[in-house]
Amino acid sequence: MSAETVFSNARVVLEDRIIDGSVVINDGMIVDIDEGVSSVGDDFDGDYLLPGLIELHTDHIEGHYAPRPRVKWNPHAAVLAHDAQIAASGITTVFDALRLGMDEQATEEANHMRLLADAIDEGLKRDRLRADHFIHLRCEVSASDCVDAFRQFENDERVKLASLMDHSPGQRQFANPEAYRVYYQGKTGMSDEAFEAFSKARIEASEKYSNAHRVAIAEACHERGIVLASHDDATIDHVNEALEQGIRVAEFPTTEEAAKASHDGGLAVLMGAPNVVRGGSHSGNVAAQRLAEKGHLDILSSDYIPFSLIQAVFHLCSKNDELALTDTVKMVSANPAKAVSLDDRGSIDVGKRADLIRVRVDDDAIPVIRSVWRQGSRVL
């Protein structure tokens, strides 16, 4: 039997309140929570003790694997670098988003995503990784090869989440054609003529493939018990389509109308933590803070900046008197855990995994991750 570990004199953030007290861990699980000052255990000196953060959608791993155009890094080293930054941001459970469905401008091919997935699996089996990793398949349904790429993962038990997305111009994230132009020409350096041809091809591909691919992938996910997410819903019709397809998570709705309809329909509404920290969407879509104020925001995702997740937790409650720290912490712990049926984690409760983070907030309101534990073992 392993020895008990006690964290004492902490500000323990529970689901419904914050207490000054202690948490006792044994065999990787939380076995007791006590209020009051203690002379026993690791003295937190008033630092916060939060549940480990749960990240459902991060594209961050691709930047480590393909750090420059035409440069591919060793996938095992890329996963280790990604994992280190994830853990240092207080994230103890991460759904690594791997992109399926390519076009001629893509820098990765479908088999490269499979290589990354294999590297994640190997890292976990060899106990190399600090965080617990699952896979989120980002399915670009407008791409001709989307379903074929999805089949490369048909026997992968780490796939727990799949999102159905279509980034063609004139709809959803890019309802504003000028935003699409700024994003893609800025990213690729295409000439105006090349961009017009690119846009036309994307629209034609969407019209040809999107609907059939949505249906095929949704059916496959339901058969395998994979949670489905919609992506960039903008209209009531988009939300109704998501509800009909058995979607459980609404990722990054672009309008307040779509976010409210999703929330009212029982979907968990997920928005980007960078949107919160920056004060708005980089694409000119609805602000996450606005949705939080209206009660339409359930989950935060770091998206492309891992540390933005813990930043957004403290930023949101400091900017809105109606939101307590317990509310914003649930957006990065209990709520995402519930959305993907991870019942063993997501809160500081007796019987839950001891996935925990120690956080200090300095005078400039930037949270500092001081320590991280996964299943009671310190990983940072």
Kindly report the average pLDDT value: 90
What's the story with the biggest beta sheet?
A: 8 strands, mixed
- The DSSP helix count reads 13
From the N-terminal CA to the C-terminal CA, the straight-line distance is: 24 Å
- Poorly predicted segments: none
Helix content: 25-40%
Structural class based on helices, strands and sheet pairing? alpha/beta
DSSP, total strands: 16
What string, H for helix and E for strand, traces the elements in order? EEEEEEHHEHEHEHHEHEHEHHEHHHEEE
- Estimated share of beta-strand residues: 25-35%
Shape, per Cα inertia axes: globular
Radius of gyration: 21 Å
How would you describe this structure to a colleague?
With 380 residues, the protein is of the alpha/beta class. It contains 13 helices and 16 strands. The strands form 2 sheets. Strands 1, 2, 3, 4, 5, 14, 15 and 16 form an 8-stranded mixed sheet that branches. A hairpin with a 2-residue loop joins strand 15 and strand 16. Helix 2 crosses helix 3 and helix 7 packs parallel to helix 8. The longest helix is centred in the middle third of the chain and has 33 residues. The model has no long low-confidence stretch (mean pLDDT 90).
Summarize the structure.
The chain has helices spanning about 60-65, 75-90, 110-125, 145-150, 175-190, 190-225, 235-245, 255-265, 275-280, 290-295, 310-320, 325-330, 335-340; strands spanning about 5-15, 20-25, 30-35, 40-45, 50, 55-60, 90-100, 130-140, 160-165, 225-230, 250, 270, 300, 355-360, 365-375, 375-380.
